[in-house]
Amino acid sequence: MRLFIYVFAFLYSLSFSLIASESDITNPNQVLHSVSTTTFKRLNDEKSRLQSEPEYIKVIIKEELIPFFDYKYTAYSVVGPNLKNTTPEQREQFVDAFLAYLINAYGHILGKYDQQSLLILDINNFKGKKIVSIPVRMTDNNGQVTQLDFKLRNNSKTGEWKVFDVIAEGVSMLDTKKSELRPLIQKQGIDEVIKLLLEKNSEFVS
What we know:
Blueprint: H1 2-11, H2 28-45, H3 47-52, H4 57-65, H5 71-79, H6 88-110, E1 117-120, E2 131-139, E3 145-154, E4 161-168, E5 171-172, H7 173-188, H8 190-205
Antiparallel strand pairs: 1-2, 2-3, 3-4, 4-5
Helix pairs in contact: 1-6, 2-4, 4-6, 5-6, 5-7, 6-8, 7-8
């Protein structure tokens, strides 16, 4: 959960000056700038609706944030070697449940944090690479700096860069979910883990 907090503190913090006229999905730096600023703008533009309809935050997350996240790759990475023992239907169900969990977790914490000052340390050496890590430094009102690294993966077919992991102060979101869910998949099977995720999703709604 701490990692989710850092993700949205990042998304909520950038100024409108970073908004580009058109998102360049072939540049990982621009992907980070675009997803942050468009999400921030949407939150401000629809603040009154969010106050009267809290669940509407999920719509914003789905429309503004999720398209920039390679959630299927992340979900498959969580399953790991167990993936070969699953059916297409099980994989689809796991990805859907995992995505719903991410959306619920993000929505649950999004409104709890104020704007932070942010510095994205753009990288130049991403040409020809499949995976890159972009450092980000977040400073709160007390001057405390949090070190973040956003990991993005390039789709060789489309040329798109998408986020698949966030590392906050050395702690990886992806590795955390692997250590939490992969042993359960190995011991109990993927169907039981899907049920567990669905139960967690129900708790967010209740």
